[in-house]
Amino acid sequence: MKRLFFLLFSSISFTLVFSQTYDPGKVSKKVKSLYDKAITLAQEGNLEQAATLLKQCAEAEPSYADAYLSLGGVYSDLRNYQLSIDYFEKAFSIDPDYSIESKLPYSINLARLGQFDKALAAITEYLDKKPPANSTALKAAEYRKRSYAFAVEYARQHPAGDYVFAPRNAGDAINTTQSEYFPSLTIDGKELVFTRRLGNNEDFFSSHKKDNDWEKAQPVPGEVNTPLNEGAQSISQDGQWLVFTGCNRPDGFGSCDIYISYLNPGGWGEAINLGGRVNSDQWDSQPCLSPDKRDLYFASRRLGGLGGTDIYVCHLQPNGKWSEPENLGPSINTPGDEQCPFIHADNQTLYFTSNYWPGYGDEDIFYARKGPGGDWSKPVNLGYPINTIDREGTLFITADGKTAYYASDKTDSKGGLDIYSFELREDIRPFKTLWVKGQVFDKKTKKGLPSDVELTDLATSQVISKVQTDENGRYLITLPVGKDYVFNVNRKGYLFYSDNFMLVKNSPDSIYEKNIPLQPIEVNASVVLNNIFFDVNKFDLQPESQIELDKIVQLMKDNPTVKVEISGHTDNVGKPADNLILSDKRAKTVVAYLINKRISPERFTYKGLGETQPVADNKTEEGRAKNRRTEMKITSQ
Fold it and tell me: What is this structure's pTM?
């Protein structure tokens, strides 16, 4: 009832010269008694009954400004903001001076409905009356004025156009009379994991999508749910890891720690505390894994940060342990609180909440993009109506970048917080992300091989993702569209696998499935070098070839006795003799690059084979592209 009390008793905060239009002393004793009874009901939480009595007061005394002001407060608490506004305005029409202090709650309700221009005008009028310096009312009003001014300017710079914000309740299969929150999904969008509060306990539930509908949510199988609280979870994009927050546990380092659970045939395994390197003796919470599971983002109140709560990241090291946490720095963190980190499947767009960066009030949701050097762009506010004057929380965005999931207590909630989804505005979306999955195996034995799978931006040479397959060689790696990628698979003792995904001009809607045979390093084993590029009818290496060439250099250093042959091939366009010469020069250029990297010339031979060994039909452009290739073959160990 704080809002109502403010309305009723704020007149003691500062003195105004009232006009003579309204005199509360002239209200009849009978109506005043009815009014007092209404206020008592409101204080006890009986808001509907209080509203009924206040309306009777207003009907009996049409100029009873206090009745209208209190109706404004009651309907604000009932979340009927438009009716609250209407009653405030009725009071203002009776006596604007007497009602001036209600311009603050009136402006707040206008802002709740997105009427920021009117809210700004109202709070400016209030401040023009000059409430006492350093008063709570003055500070609150100045804070609101900054927020409203931000909202007005944001709307000017980001016109809504045809965008409609229409959150959809996830329905009875997900939501109950209890509270559901912290939604997260696997990359294919077929499994939803969330937290449900059952009395004083929090557990994880999951639902699977079948025929585009969610099945009835059930507690996640396995050992991760316990009589203790489990919350603030995030499932990895491949659905194999679950990171979450556990508080006040016997094995904890601080008030709340970060834990991990791994999926096994029997369900989710027993929770494992990530240890004293990740966790501190303070509050560590809200973890989120990058799509390649190499980075762990989380919020922490540990000492040494830039504000109350900061966002940190730990990196998974080659030995399987997490690095010391790194503060994301002043590009993200501020003297205020930054929380609820979510890194999208594109591995470049980070969403988080902040109560310090300019916004609408309380905590807003922002996003920032990671640059090639790992630096973060300036945070961007997601704007109204995603952000409001109230506190916002976690946001999860699907791989296509279009659909967002979040928890809210909207009027159609089934009880407490419910999970909703909505479509994001185009200008605040992450990069649409496809993915490739499959199995890496030994070409001879067909046995799955644990391997490194790496995706590199062809234009910048930045490694976008690097994942480790499971024990059976299965992998999943994300592909943000709009870029061209080098795709390599590596395992010691084997030739690397070379491929690419050209997504700058082509953005298919389907995912890729690619099972990858690796060849043991032995005589006559060969690999097509799909990421060595030449201009048409030329033999100069394009700069983008360096990524693949350096892979060969590393292979030669790791296997110092191996000797290889580099062969060049063309399609059948042009004269055979010219093609033979061109392919020979291209092979020679590759060898020259490798020798320049201090690999002994004695370990290389080269030859051009022109159009004599096609691997596809030269009648199609796709076939000709496959025939224009560079190959590497082991000639000696």
Answer: 0.86
